[in-house]
Design brief:
Elements: H1 52-55, H2 61-64, H3 68-81
Length: about 80
């Protein structure tokens, strides 16, 4: 599965505890990563400064669902279940 253009659910819904350039303390769940551009694309994609946790989050049907809204809900639900 390929990432949906303009989705960015994986850059918004989950918390990230590792440092991100511009967010040295990571980010809380539900907060957009500072590295998202105006099209909801990652400015760090393919760069060595992209956090390993981001590289390790592949697009999968059971996480991404059939729409951006489903992806935000599914990833948010996974976040809530792992707290």
């Amino acid at each position: 599965m390929e990432c949906r253009s303009g989705c960015a659910a994986c850059c918004i819904a989950p918390s990230i505890s590792s440092p991100i350039p511009g967010m040295p303390d990571g980010k809380p769940a539900g907060v957009a990563c500072i590295q998202l551009d105006e099209r909801l694309g990652c400015r760090l994609f393919g760069q060595p400064t992209r956090p390993a946790v981001c590289d390790g989050f592949p697009a999968q049907a059971d996480v991404c669902g059939e729409s951006r809204e489903q992806a935000l809900w599914l990833i948010g639900e996974l976040e809530r279940l792992t707290i």
